[in-house]
Amino acid sequence: MSADGESTRRVRPARPPDTEAVVALCREMMESHAALDPRFRPAASWIPAYREDFRRRLQDRDHQVVVCEEEGKVVGYAAVSLRMHPPVLEPRLVGYVTDICVAPAARRRGVGRALVDALREWCRSRGLRVILLRAACLNQTSQAFWRRMGWQDYMTEMWFESPGE
């Protein structure tokens, strides 16, 4: 805590030393999604693959990953990437939120908002007006968060699984 009793919060671009803190947050997010809906069950070897993907995104100019620190500890992270919209739609280039996770103990204190503000600023600095994302249908908390942040329903992604043989 600072001298006035307030937590010191800082949102900054993620760096390689943040890898394990981000993996731990992602693990919590994956477990909570799998508990809501078994279709989100992660692959057995997802952690090494995620570490590699995280490191790749840190080096790629078409991605931005930010972390939020409180008292020097990473309590949340979020990521956005540049994506091409289908050629029949405008605008062609959009931002796409791929990840956001806030540690359970840090939720409902503005961490998520601070992370999203950083992603919005990164997109704005690249001239993007539109940012898209997907929120799990059964994760009502996530959907409510995004609606509070100004997102609107746009499309519904649907799932079909062929019966086993």
User: SS-based structural class?
Assistant: alpha+beta
| Strand element count | 5
Quick check: average pLDDT? Answer: 93
CATH architecture annotation name: 3-Layer(aba) Sandwich
SSE succession:
EHHEEEHEH
Into which percentage range does the β-strand content fall? Answer: 15-25%
Name the poorly predicted regions: 1-5
Major beta sheet summary: 5 strands, mixed
Count of domains? 1
CATH class: Alpha Beta
Shape category: globular
Secondary structure blueprint with pairings:
Layout (H helix, E strand, L loop, with lengths): L8 E5 L5 H18 L9 H14 L3 E8 L2 E12 L8 E10 L8 H15 L5 E2 L7 H9 L17
How would you characterize the overall build of this protein?
With 165 residues, the protein is of the alpha+beta class. Helices cover 34% and strands 22% of the residues. It has 4 helices and 5 strands, in the order βααβββαβα. The chain has a 5-stranded mixed β-sheet, with helices on both faces. Helix 1 packs across helix 2. The N and C termini lie far apart (59 Å). Residues 1-5 have low confidence and may be disordered.
What is this entry, summarized?
This protein is an alpha+beta fold. Helices cover about 35% and strands about 20% of the residues. The chain has helices spanning about 20-35, 45-60, 110-125, 140-150, and strands at about 10-15, 65-70, 75-85, 95-100, 130.
Pick out its properties.
disordered N terminus; 165 residues; five-stranded mixed beta sheet; alpha+beta; Aminopeptidase
